[in-house]
Amino acid sequence: MSKGNPLSSQASSDLPSNYKVINSHIYTDRDYVIPGDSDEISRMEMSHYGYRYLFRCNFNAPVEDMLDQGGIILDVGCGRGPWTMEMAKSYPKSSFVGIDKEDCFPASNPGNCVFQIVDLLKGLPFKDNTFDYVYSRGMYYYFSFVEWQQVVEELRRVTKPGGYVELVETGPLFNNLGPYSSKFQNACATLIQAVGGDVYIPEKLGDYLAGFDDLTTDYASSPIGWKGRIGQLNLQNMELSYTAHKLRLCNYMRWTEEEYKVINEQGLAEYSKHKTWVNIHYAFGMKPLV
To answer: What CDD domains is this protein classified in (predicted)?
Structure first.
């Protein structure tokens, strides 16, 4: 397994210790600009643009030649399909399939892009060795530890020999938190573990691709509420996250609405004050030819 490629560390006096940034590729600002009107972007779309801006690309696996020539690609947990749609437009010779448990797909899409409702826990409705590239992002916290293992095995099954699987996940835990943002994070982690999940899966993505060739793992750090536009986008994403988790956390932690309101307001204010950041981990590997 290789580590540190293609990302690398960059020391800077204005960044916290252990904060990792990309410095191995150069792109113009307009190549991967974050949309200005974030109020019109769903939380998943915010995450998509944040990932893309952070990595300066839509993927890390060495699959560009295959995409240019024409391959079959699966986007797992595609949501409204921002990644699928962008990739389909960028690589018109390839075919893209986006799957999600809910029908939240776009009303129109490129001719080389289709969407399908799929419950991952019931297995993928595709034959063995179907796809040249399988991409999964932001999915582990929807499953228990055992279920996540089953999901990754399904991704492995439908990938062609010589094809790549790439996993991208956030976490496990944020760095440089204040008391209220820590309380929110600890509650979320407790809830994930209570349903059989593992908050440390992002750090172990490479383990799930054991047996793959060209196995590569790395991460980049993403700021919350500071360091310009990307930090503000992540903060807006956290605002939506606090709202989305309100009911479940209040019920599980037995917090009142007023208590949660204080945690929400104070927690969000702490991210920029403490220069909070989170690591985005990825792993990719090639399914062996034999």
So the answer is: AdoMet_MTases
Judged on CB neighbours under 10 Å (0-12, 13-18, 19+), 276 is buried
CB 287 within 8 A of CB 162: yes
Query: Which residue type sits at 238?
Result: M
Q: Does the structure show a pLDDT above 70 at 33?
A: no
Task: Read off the pLDDT of residues 48-106 as tens digits, 9 standing for 90 and up.
Answer: 888 998 998 999 999 999 999 999 999 999 989 999 999 999 999 999 999 999 888 98
Query: Taking a C-beta distance cutoff of 8 angstroms, is the pair 133, 73 a contact?
Result: yes
Residue 250, Cβ density class (10 Å: 0-12 exposed, 13-18 middle, ≥19 buried) = middle
Quote the tokens at residue 280.
Answer: 């985005």
Taking Cα atoms as reference points, which of 54, 61, 9, 20 lies closest to residue 215? 61
146, two tokens: 């055992």
Q: 35 near 49, Cβ under 8 Å?
A: yes
* Average pLDDT along the chain: 88
Radius of gyration of the chain (CA): 19
Residue 179 has pLDDT above 60, yes or no: yes
The structure tokens listed for 142 are: 């929807």
Task: Give the DSSP H or E segment for 286.
Answer: strand 277-286
Q: Is there a contact between 162 and 129 (Cβ–Cβ < 8 Å)?
A: no
CB 230 within 8 A of CB 50: yes
How far does Cα 182 stand from its chain's mean position? 22
For the entire predicted model, the pTM comes to 0.86
Using an 8 Å Cβ cutoff, are 257 and 265 in contact? no
- The pairing of beta strand 213-223 with beta strand 277-286: antiparallel
Q: Which two tokens stand for residue 180?
A: 């209220």
CATH superfamily of 2-11+18-175+197-222+279-286: Vaccinia Virus protein VP39 (3.40.50.150)
